[in-house]
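Researcher: I'm preparing a figure for a lab meeting and need a structural model of a single chain. I don't have an experimental structure, so a prediction will have to do for now. The sequence is pasted below. Please return the structure as tokens so I can convert it later.
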Amino acid sequence: MSLTDKSENRDFDKKKPFSLREWLFSHDLDKRMFIYGLVFGLPGMALIFIYPSLAEYIGPEQCRFLAVTGFYCPGCGCTRAVRAMLHGHFVLSVLYNPAVMYGTVIWLLYEGSHILELLHVPHIRGMKFRYGYIYAGIVILLANWIIKNIIMYFINY
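Model: Understood. Here is the structure written out token by token.
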């Protein structure tokens, strides 16, 4: 064994320090979305299940966009939809703003499928991340906004 072989082995044996950024971005997009969903979604879900009475204190009394423009904003009804969902009124939640229920269902399916895949449940693969999920959510949000404003215009004026 020559001197150069020993120096190459020493370089190979050295461990690189742990880098969270490198670990997060070394995975493919599906794994990163799963990790982000857990990091941001689990604390929110924990608050919902630990403190169900928080639903009464979410958001302002009236939408500021509605107060200024006289029209509903795209997010109008989201607070009421979250409150209804927390109280188990899922149909009412969809009527207030269907984007809230859509986002919740997509999040649960996505995260749940990846957790089942990590647990090695047979024949279960994690959902693939598709931008179509985001586009569908935007379409639902905008359609709800347009329909609510059309109905408000013809009923109130």
